[in-house]
């Protein structure tokens, strides 16, 4: 009988806590953590400007090449594609454990009816109160005027806005929920600390909108985190987030100039 050779190579037991902590910090530094820092600096700039916060604007989905629609479209598509890369990186890192990351965080097609119906329900439950909170913050002078779209009137504007909404949803829910919550739990964090950290991160990169944007998104972050911890699926929240952003982006593009409250 032939004996198998014996080697002294260590068995891979997975990354240790120090490695995981470094990994989390690096993922956030190249994605939404970085956005949070820039948003904080942006808010400081607004607060120290000569105009009041309520008299300033925060523009999303702006033109990247005014007057050159094909170049503008190219920039828009490149921006959307590269903005999703941190989410793919997070899933790649989660998948190194041997189990597909799509199964770990629930971003797959195993429960399409649940994902769509639950996502639509969450969007409806959050969308109307969120809109009310935004207008209340504006009335109190705690939020800048958010302009969801400043794209020119070209044929590709609506499709790009929809793609931008989906990109935002995938990036944020994969990183803030699927990746971060999974890693913090692996690091032994208690559930309240995990939920609060995820929610504060979500609020931080909306600080450019003012205090109202921070508070509203932090509250949304708590609800999303609790939902994810209960069902262990990111997919319904990607659907919900996509619907919310599509409603904001496309709705603004279609209604601006036709209603007095925009």
TrEMBL record:
Q: Keywords for this entry?
A: Membrane, Transmembrane, Transmembrane helix
Q: Where does the sequence pass through the membrane?
A: 24-45, 73-95, 116-136, 211-229, 236-255
State if Membrane is listed as a keyword: yes
Question: Could you cite one Gene Ontology molecular function of this protein?
Answer: endopeptidase activity
Is RNA-binding one of the keywords UniProt gives this record? no
GO biological process, alphabetically ordered? CAAX-box protein maturation
- Domain annotation CAAX prenyl protease 2/Lysostaphin resistance protein A-like: ranges: 155-246
Q: What is this protein called?
A: Membrane protein
Species per Swiss-Prot/TrEMBL record: Actinocatenispora comari
